[in-house]
Amino acid sequence: MTTLRQAVLERARVDGDLLMVDEFLNHRVELGIVDSAARDLVDRYAGSDIDLVLTAEASGIAPAIFCGAALQVPVVYAKKYLGIGDRYALSRTITSPTRGTEYRVEVSRRAISPAERVLVVDDFLSGGRTAAALGEITTEAGADVVGFGFLIEKATLGGRQRLEQRSWRVESVVTITSLGEGRFEVAP
Q: Looking at the chain, which terminus has fewer C-beta neighbours within 10 angstroms, N or C?
């Protein structure tokens, strides 16, 4: 079976400052790769008594579902909306540096129960804005953030630091140490 690291090394490509993994991770989803990576994340949180997996729509859903299945816990995904809404939800507004747009992530107030222990999962950790928003939503709901799990981390963009400065635990399956000029490097 191909691991996520192997797939990144052999099949990822660079487009500007983006690492393109759409052929196996976030457009075409190769289930064996995502399942293996999700199990790696779940193993890192062994003994953490996780009650819920939280992610953001859309490309975080696949790894979150595999993590939830491995843990046998529910999965909630925050919905993304452009503009301002007036729904009965926990929400945060985020500016996407990739798209240059502002959007809101929202979770129904009924989706996360107080005192639940939540693992936040996503496909990428870049600047950490979406992840931090999901952590804030979790704490606003009265639940506890167990930690964050990412399939791929772009280490140079400060996302880990954004989360760790709040004393949140961060785990990544693959870490990209440099990216640009059509090339990238993966941590050993």
A: C
Using CB atoms within 10 A of its CB, is residue 186 exposed (0-12), middle (13-18) or buried (19+)? Answer: middle
Buried b (16+ CB within 10 A) or exposed e, 123-136: bbbbbbbbbbbbbb
In terms of residues, how long is the chain? 188
**pLDDT value at 71 more than 80:** yes
Residue of 55, 44, 72, 70 whose CA lies nearest to 131: 55
Q: Left (φ > 0), alpha (ψ -120 to 50) or beta: where does 112 sit?
A: beta
What the chain holds in terms of domains, given with CATH numbers, is: 4-77+110-186 (3.40.50.2020)
Predicted TM-score (pTM) of the model is 0.94
For residues 18-42, b (16+ Cβ closer than 10 Å) or e, as one string?
ebebeebbbeebbeebbbbbbebbb
pLDDT mean over 42-55: 98
pLDDT, position 16: 87
Which among 5, 17, 41, 38 has a CA at the least distance from the CA of 188? 5
